[in-house]
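Subject: sequence -> structure tokens, single chain

Hey, anyone have a minute? Need the predicted structure for the following. Not urgent.
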Amino acid sequence: MAEHRVAPFTDPDRGGKPLPITLKPGDPSARPRHPREGAFLHPRFLQRRHRPHVLTFARFVQLAHGIADDPLLEPEAKLHHVDALETSLVEGRAKRPYLKVGLELREALVGLGIGDRHARQVLQAVRKDAVGQVCRSWSDLLLYCRYAAAPGGRFVLDLHGENTSATAPAADALCAAVHILGTVRDCRSDWTDLGRCYIPVQWFDEAGVSVERLVERSSDATVRAVFDRMLRQVDGLLDRSAPLPALLKDRGLRAEARVQLLEAQALRRRLGRADPLARRVHLSAGQRLVVHAKGWLATFARA
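Reply:
Had a minute. Here:
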């Protein structure tokens, strides 16, 4: 039986080459149809000894979302695969090759002395996606981010031995902001391809417009007002996350947090000017390079 390899995550220590996940036909896809740039899961500035563990966690998250996004699987089948992935993580049992990702994360967590709670929380969010996630309110979205976005940041904090009581609230806010900006950017494809809406449906109702307007190729003033309401809420999350770099002890992690914050602020500005229904709004390679340089230099200047 032929194999294929897919993986959007890359390893800085391998020159940016992709980290493969080997699958067989019939297995769920490893590539999410609309991957989010999870905060802290692309270890550009972290210490070399921490990078393999972050990438192992990232591969687990990637596979989990790939299951939820697989267009060939019914919801029941998706939930079955998610359950199998959790079994590989928790019990160390895997009947299919693609579940090796769960075994690898289990081995890493045992060696690090870190529990599997963060990874299992991600699976709770994935299960919601598998059956068609629709957020009714802003509270619904924040609760979703608690499981979909925050665990990655908390895992990285634990990995570095940071004081989570001091750093976790700001890290959670940053992870949520990054994730929510991705949902605004991808709101059209999330709805048309996956039947999901992360923008609170209640806001569409209050504006007197149907969520079905997300299929359009441009935003009118009413839909634009809903997007702007979302971005104003993100502003609050970014304000709460702003102290995070100064709270972190590890210099590489400080640089990573500062760059994540600068990237999120830049993407928020772009989304405030551009129409996410008309095209996919993103930072160019040049803009990312500038942000990375600013974040790294600021970290060294304040070290």
